[in-house]
Here is the input.
Amino acid sequence: MAREKTTETEVVKGSKEAKRQRKKTKKEYKTRTVHSNLLYYRTKAEDNPNRHYADNKIKTTKYTLLSFLPKNLFEQFHRFANVYFVFIALLNFVPVCNAFQPELALAPVVFILSVTAIKDLWEDYRRHRSDKEINHMDCLVYSRPERQYLERFWKEVRVGDFIRLRCNEILPADVLLLSSSDPDRLVHIETATLDGETNLKQRQVVRSFLDLDCEFDPSKYRSVIECEKPNNDLARFRGYITHSSGRRDGLYKDNLLLRGCTIRNTEECVGIVIYAGHETKAMLNNNGPRYKRSKLERQMNVDVGWCVIILLVMCLFSAIGHGLWMYQYGEKRPVFDVLSPEGTHMSPVLSAIYLFLTMIIVFQVLIPISLFVSIEIVKICQVYFIHQDLELYDEETDSHLQCRALNITEDLGQMQYIFSDKTGTLTENKMVFRRCTVAGVEYSHDANARRLAMYQDVVDSEEEDCPSHGGTLPRRDSVTSHQSAAKVVLRSQSTKSHRRTGSRAEAKRASILSKHTAFSSPMEKDITPDPQLLDKVNDGGSQMDFKRFHSQSLSQMPSELTDIIDFFIALTICNTVVVSSPNQPRHKVRMRFELKSPVKTIEDFIKRFTPSRLTSSSNNSSSSSLNRSSNRGCSHLLTSPSAESTLTKLDEEPSSPVPAPPTLGTCYDGKPGSQEEVELRYEAESPDEAALVYAARAYKCSLVGRLPDQVTVEFPHLGRLSFELLHTLGFDSNRKRMSVVVRHPLTDQITVYTKGADSVIMDLITPPKFANKIHHLCFRSLYNGL
Here is the structure.
């Protein structure tokens, strides 16, 4: 009995173990395990656990040398006319039914199939060249033997490799974000190639790497990643990372950078490749090249079908008539009677059947084969003229229209559905600041309205002067533009920044990648302030500065001036706009000037607040900016362009007067006039947010820096004020507004600033007497088309 119980227990344990093994196998089937390739660089390829994953080489061509002929003929036979003509040509080889020389009847069919095949082959060759260009783009991949990042082709990237990406670079694969030069460990990406949205999206470094106090070293990476199998869901990513210490952290979509996205507003970031090549989410969403059929071709298939029906009716009518006519002769046969292959006379029924087939060949001209030859030639000519059309040239990107699908050129401009949205995404509405109302007082900005009207007249006149005739495309330097010189400067600065890094990959793409800014046209950026409002802003800033200097309460100020200052504070901080500058892709502002020891001498001041790149210019030029940002806790400095320019000037002119050091509070008392004006660029999730920030900057109320818990704004007479950001309530369709909770640096009070739709803001206006007046002003603005 004891032995039987033992055996039964062993069977139960064995069944449980088998279930666990099946669950484990099932789990492994649904997940992917990614190890660092650096751990296996000395081992054989068979020992690398990542060896079964796809490489990063892509192939979007439809044909190979062996599959071209059968696949192309199969696609062409989807055109009903081709099937018809081939049937007629083969029918002409039947001796009893032939009406023309068989070989001669086959020539037109072979010609039209050959022309289409050559066109498809050329189109597929263009895909091959595009694939080759993409596969041979450069990126920085960490090499274990050299212990540094080396340039590699995209096709050489493998799952488990560590890659470094810089601003304006395109992601070569799906990458798990492990490090970022951003002080908040964020990376901003543009996903226009995936979802068509040009607004920037934020991605976060994996949780366990957020508090990394030194530069990320891939050679010390020992973690293992478990994630889901490759899929085409762009909005989903699940997994976890297990460290050598046993700690496990979750992975989410905010940690994944997708192939095809562009790094924006972030100096550098490092990640490990999770999916590569055709296993990336972008490629899985690409169903591959397919044979596209235009609306004209689909309609022609229908028309050919009706023509075939008419043809069959005509042939049937002729065959029936011929059978009846032969039946009248009886045993006697006419002299012109056609004999059977055996030399005997055929019955009237069989003779009618043969005549039916013969009449199909005779009446084949009902469907003209020359029509389809002409259409193929016309399509090729259309592609040529589309490529050479000056009206389809985009001078901003220095590119002309490219026709990638040669089969559907006639569908260009044939709109079936019209989509419209209120944001102007499709119509490219210009979000321009026109007028404002503060505390019931309207400021019309008449000078700004005249400027906008003048600018629009210039644009319209230049569009009328633009030549509309065809011709070859002009050279880049010969194209005249009504756009501002800021765009040209923007592109040249972007190119210089790429060349400064010394990366061959960046220099190669500098000409095709433009800097992403919220606005680039003077129509949207250059705002003419209202004189009355500008005077009140200066007056309010001056009075606040005076009362702050004499430690007086701000409550004694006129309510009109405080309302105006609060209005511009709301414009600058109640948003998600990120600041950048020409010399620094991401504009960083420290939390506060919390000095560990008081500043006693000017040498201490310069040493304390000089950026590291100004004091370490003799160091190795290849030192990473990741190292500078990761050591941000070791120095308390302000890395804004204004501060850098001032400090550089102090270093060059030691005899010049030195500004006072910052105080220990949240306010910087340096006057804005003492610093060189530096162009700031705003990266906004929506154009209306950037429009409001640019409007505030026209009144010298500039957003100069943003951190997760702080926003820094520069005001006239007040200098730079740092608002402690306590909480942010983002805009959503339910609240229809956005709110920020901040601690005011002057009053030390907690204040809520809100912006949103008038339908919800109107109910929050106090006192109520302003509500009716503001409602009337809003209605008048709507009547004027604003």
In short: The first strand starts at residue 31 and ends at 34. Residues 522-614+628-783 form one domain. Confidence is low (pLDDT under 50) at residues 1-9, 24-28, 466-519, 582-677. The two ends are 93 Å apart (CA to CA).
